[in-house]
Amino acid sequence: MSGFKAAYVLVHGAWHNHAVWNRVASILEAQGLAALSLDLPGAGINTIAPASLGRRPFDPAAFAAERSPVAGVTQAERTAAVVALVQEAAALGNGKVILVGHSAGGLTISAVAEQVPELLRAVVYLSGFMLPKGMPLLAMLQHESMTSALSSGLFVGETAAIGATRINVGSLDDAYRSLLKATFYGDVSEAEFAHVASQLHCDEPVATAVTPSDITAERFGTVPRHYIRCSEDCAIPLACQDQMIAMVDAAIGGRTIVHTLTSGHSPFLSQPDALSKILIGLT
């Protein structure tokens, strides 16, 4: 038998990697809980930067037009990678796996919960995209509840043409970097922002944005679901978070259990203790 009281699988959001969970993972582990994370396919160590990003002098037009090296990565690949990690976690946590997804990581945890509901004690969306059956991320991004989101101002190039949703992680433009901070890290220090921004990758595969959610009441709906609202979020506004909760509850039945942090989009950096307290309470 495992010595862990439960196990958490922590899934990062778009343009990020597993390292964003380091502080939360340390807090969970100090409480005798296993905490597993990964770089999704096409992210972190599994990504390849466009060649134009490293050329000097930098050519913005070439960067905006270059086909993404990760354009072929699919949502199915990301789902399979997390299913494998959940299976590993189930052996550590005495069968109690709590699956957590941040932001666009919500797309993957929904698909995983649909595939292996029997392995999950709970599924948790941290200001995450929780979408009803048949809706892709792209449709939610175009919803009126996303009108105030700042994230669209970061996008570079034509998504369909380059095969990815691209941001310029290496930008030296003060206005662009200020928008990047305001979007994802409005309540973290400048030093913290500089560190986390240096770890971002620039491309998110387009397939993840156009693949419809496939959750059902018969499988996904059997897993207790939680949503951690981030009330000061400028990437996924609170109105959008609440809209998704309402849509999924109406489509699936049952009730999403709601928690709220007075935080921006990245509470694993700005409020790791408060976030961890919520997660620990789910065991």
List the helices and strands and how they pair.
Elements: E1 7-11, H1 22-30, E2 34-37, H2 60-65, H3 75-92, E3 97-102, H4 105-115, E4 120-126, H5 137-141, E5 155-156, H6 159-162, E6 164-167, H7 174-184, H8 190-197, E7 203-205, H9 207-210, E8 225-230, H10 238-252, E9 257-261, H11 267-270, H12 272-280
Parallel strand pairs: 1-2, 1-3, 3-4, 4-8, 8-9
Antiparallel strand pairs: 5-6, 6-7
Helix pairs in contact: 1-12, 3-4
Please sum up the structure shown.
The protein is an alpha/beta fold and 283 residues long.
Task: Describe, in plain words, how this protein is organized in 3D.
With 283 residues, the protein is of the alpha/beta class. It has a single domain, classed as Alpha/Beta hydrolase fold, catalytic domain (Rossmann fold, 3-Layer(aba) Sandwich). It is built from twelve helices and nine strands. It has helices at 22-30, 60-65, 75-92, 105-115, 137-141, 159-162, 174-184, 190-197, 207-210, 238-252, 267-270, 272-280, and strands at residues 7-11, 34-37, 97-102, 120-126, 155-156, 164-167, 203-205, 225-230, 257-261. Strands 2-1-3-4-8-9 form a six-stranded parallel beta sheet, with helices on both faces. Strands 5-6-7 form a three-stranded antiparallel beta sheet. Helix 1 (22-30) packs across helix 12. The model has no long low-confidence stretch (mean pLDDT 96).
